[in-house]
Amino acid sequence: AFAGQRTAVNLQGLEKEEIQRGNVLAPSDSLLPTFMLDGTLEILSSVSKPLKNRTLVRLHLHTAEILAYAILLDKEEIKPGETGYVQFRLRQPTVALPGDRFVIRSYSPIFTLGGGDILHPAPVKHKRFRPQVIEDLKALETGNLEKAILCHLNQAGYKGISRQTIRIFTNNFSETLDHTLETLQKKQRIYLINKDTHHYIHRRYIEEISKKMVSFLNTFHATHPLLLGISKDELKSKLLPFIRDELFGFVLHYLEGKHIIVIEQNLVRLSSHTIRLNKEEQILKEKIYHVLHTAQYSPPSPQELAKMLKTNPEKIMHLLRLLTEEGKIIRIKEDFYFDTTLLNTLKEKLTTYLKTHQGITPAEFKTLTNASRKYNIPLLEYFDHIKLTLRVGDKRVLR
After folding, report:
1. Angle, helices 131-142/145-156, rounded to nearest 10 degrees
2. CATH number of the domain where residue 264 is located
3. Across residues 373-384, what is the average pLDDT?
4. Cα(173)–Cα(367) distance, integer angstroms
């Protein structure tokens, strides 16, 4: 069947009463239902008065008649014989593709007002007289594929859109679209943020997020000069809780590739950031490490360290975190910090013991640490956590 012809279609599982005037039959995922449409609208020169903003009209699209409000985007009114940009806000959902023709008629009494072309088949809600909106609609009107893709990604914001949605928005399902997307990527005007879902975002939003992230890290380093960096989770929750994880990860990778930030394990910092301790802080840091190393498997808590070294607990916590970030000590639970070297030695001893025994109890574990139950239980739980051991009853065995 060709355009303009009638044909019969056998639809399985549907009753005649379920099919309404204006329904569209299309392949799955080839159209998007919408309550809004953007287009160009020309008012007939024979109409007696201008079309005013928010006029309720009868929109005739395909075989459907839908009540809709005509929101004029670039004019206060469209005079007879003139053309303007319009967003239709529909009383019921419909589907369309760019280039589809439509006609509008007055609500009452009924007579034809004008018609036009669909430019965007599923737009966001626009505010009137916005230069960027008008610029985007002009780009869509040209029919240029590159301009259309950039326009749709610009309107999509931080959410971005998938390749399939771009196909629908541009009414282009050919290989030309894929080639154009590749060209725009090479020009770095758009970015592919998820290869599995083929999800794209406009360069503008990558640059915006990057600028916010760098500014936040500058402030963070100035506020916390003794911290090596901030965790990824904390950075996202404080700065960009509203964006998807895949976009956050892409921006981190993007900035790391440009050598603007450094990611070490789970910490993020500016590449220019280095910790500069004064002489007093450096001495205190060395004392803390010495105390923890000497205490072996029975280290003092941060509060006890503050009393021992006659300093405030906040400074102790900052330096403990710095030593942790440097990999010199390991934090186990809230109040236990162990020398990394000693902990690795204990791990080797425990592994050797378990290779020649059926398991190890807390009492037997004490022969390896010479520490009290207060420290031994958290240590055993730590080895469970790093998946070295598995608890079976009151014993631990190798995984």
Report:
1. 150
2. 1.10.10.10
3. 96
4. 71
